Amino acid sequence: MEVGHPAGLLIFEMKTIEVWNNFNDELYFFILKKVKDKNVANDIFQNTFLKIHTNVSKLKDEKKVRSWIYQIARNETVNYLNNQLRYINEIKTDTANALTDFSNICCFDKLIDELPKMYKDVIEMAFVKGIKQKDIAEKLGISLENVKVRVGRGKELLKTKFRECCNYQLDSNNKLTGDPDCAACSSK
What we know:
This protein is mainly α. The protein has eight helices and four strands.
């Protein structure tokens, strides 16, 4: 849209609604094709249009609208994917450390196997396999809150079992400490 300028010059001014009307479907499907997840695509799409809305007044050339909005969408997609990759790497690092920490604890596998199935499943998925709690909820068909409760209760059961079986104690940071001294460990 061209508008008059006080000096008599015509300048180009586009509004967010025009960008939306002309590009929303194709831009959404462009993002969806990149991420292959509707929820993620919706988030990126919303962030993209927020940036378009915030910066549309800076766009001065109508011929560059398409490339400009696609560049914003590409940047938002890359930002999302980079954040996911960083998060996945942090989880892998944490999981690797957790597995290393637990590998030296006696009876670890035995005590997990003895947990009631509802706690065993979430503990194995969260701490042995490193699956996010949100994904565990989806896999098991239960709420995220339910997964969190089961993880908490499962951890408490494990702490109790470690104290009873292996004479481990909880330190000031609520972590298990001590030397294994149980019949199960001695028989290994």
